[in-house]
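Hi R.,

Here's the chain you asked about this morning:
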Amino acid sequence: MNVWFDKALRVLLMLILAAGMTACAKKKVAPQAGMGPAGYGPGDMGGPGSGGALGADDARWRELGLNTEAERQEFMTQAQRFENEDIYFDYDAYVLTEPAKRILDDKIQFLKRYPKVRVTVEGHCDERGTNEYNLALGERRANAAMQYLANAGMSTQNLNAVSYGEERPLATGHDEASHARNRRAHFVLNN
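And here is the predicted structure, written out as tokens:
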């Protein structure tokens, strides 16, 4: 009877463990369609795949002065380019380089075309240096980009700066090529 009890206890423990593992399993969530710049997805506000009907977010489009599908598509294309083109900095520096200024000049053209967009300028650093130092350097990089935009006549009312220091690396390597990719200012549309 002792052998039978041991086997029954083992089976019972295995059932309890199996039930516990099933109860703690993560639920699978269906993937969502990719979102475009500023959270505008392809099905939002009458975009492709929405059947052409204007959705609840139509007010966001009108706020930006985009009333036709063609204007919205142009905005989406331009916004994607705006967000995907970072400016880069030299090691331990926040002075804008000539290539960075050329990129910022392109961003100024976008902001002139769409003056009501809200932008967050993110300052980033490589992994070298203390967290505190990198947060301060990232802030100086974001502010240098914002100051360039302001000097070109852009309203700072719709601009915001934030520093992530070394916390959000673009490249995860520990070599100079990775460090160079992480010393950047990134631009995010917030509408």
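One quick note: Confidence is low (pLDDT under 50) at residues 19-36, 38-56.

Cheers,
M.
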